[in-house]
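Attaching the record inline, Q. Sequence:
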Amino acid sequence: MTSQYRVLYGNLLTSALHGELPSSSLTTFDVLNGPGGGSVSMPLDTNPAISVDELTFDGATGIFIERDGVIVGGGIPWTYRADIGSNTLTVNFAGWLSYLRRRTLRATLVYSGVEQTTIATNLIDYAEGVPGGAIGITHAATATGVTRDRTYRWWEHHNVGEQIERLANVNNGFHFRFDTEWQPADTIPTIVFRTSYPPLGRLTTHVFDTDVNCALAQVDGDGSGIVNSVLVAGEGEGRGRVTATRVNADAWNTAPLLQRVLSFSTVRSRTHLVAHGDRMIAQGAEVANRIRLDVHPDTPPNFGSYTVGDRVRVVASYGFVDVDDLFRITKRTLKSAGGSEWVTIDLAPERLYDY
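Structure, as predicted:
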């Protein structure tokens, strides 16, 4: 059965849905703790012509990709290319985080011992609450039980999107995504900021096996991050500086000494330094294999049952490549063109995201 796609577009400031774009091909992708994006191609000389007052590239327009009635992607179109020779207009959009990366804090916000996802949603509320700044981002964040101290002074002009990313990517942080979905009484799809915790990701029972349900497209092996001895330096100077050393002695049986130094100038707890060192030792224990798979969206596990951040098992064997392990989905790309559709999944070893 062929899936039915619609590319909808509307005004984010007024919540008015303009209609449907006549797409000939499309791509939409999600990334872990990032904006994602995509592109839509259509005839350049559409009839009736697309209104330049409705399809704008100034941040006011939202694009929404719908597959069989479910929104599977969306974002803000920032650029386009009109190819006269092929009579093709290609519109490129970036995910909703791209808007928050274009917003700055012009107020002083102080948080002491506040739930980390509450700080993130407060930053979104600030951006949405400034006159002219609301594009309809809502939130349904999950509490993590981890509190943070943060001070954002108005004269420092912090970038809203970047501060959310920094909150998420610290030790014991969280994962986030921006879902786009239809909700009751919607005139335009709703944008929802959601979080998940712990940052290990959702452990699924999904298995991607190249002999069963997917094709191996690419494997990139990277041993440049291998380390078996880490010195972690904390607060202080000279001999009075707090330090911790962590080693992977078993690795010395097969590899030479590979050392790194980490610096955390504001950390005075040796326990915390040990945790940082152990994390690097675990992440650098072996070659990091980054895998790309091609999957049909209706082949189990079906598209929609997995998302970025999920932990899945990958079984792949082809010549030099021999993999059977847990991986994290770091990027999920859906493409449709000429009546065909396919999904590309990028994965990385789960240990790289153990923070």
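The longest strand covers residues 321-337. Residues 116-129 form the longest helix (14 residues).

More tomorrow.
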